[in-house]
Amino acid sequence: QVQVVESGGGLVQAGGSLRLSCSASGLTISRYASGWFRQAPGKEREFVAGINWSGRSTGCAESVKDRFTISRDNAKNTVYLQMNSLKPEDTAVYYCAVDSSRIYSAIYSSDLNDYESWGQGTQVTVSA
How far apart are CA 11 and CA 123, in angstroms? Predict the structure, then answer.
């Protein structure tokens, strides 16, 4: 059974930084494209950042571009989301997702429907 686990969320003041981590059991995450999504109260889940299996192709949503960076360490089977210059509007539950149907995919998707395996989410709260 696949289990995706996020960690690293918490409470931070505006302008601060957090690094989220994502690992998985039941699959080798290093073989798959992955993405980070977030969902704020009363809003739909939205794409934040994506990375292909090798880490050579990455991208972020416009709202977080130049502040957030997605990366991965395949030797550690971990995907990261480095979040800098955090704003109150970044407050949300952040989810890690794995595109576990396509092994060694050279691309990542910004469509949440393309991801089969999801974590339970980690809360990020940014105070003003």
Answer: 8
* 100-119 pLDDT per residue, tens: 999 999 999 999 999 999 99
Of all residues in the chain, what percent carry a pLDDT higher than 70? 100
Question: Cα–Cα distance between 111 and 26 in angstroms, integer?
Answer: 23
- 6-33 confidence digits (pLDDT tens): 999 999 999 999 999 999 999 999 999 9
CA distance 32 to 116: 11
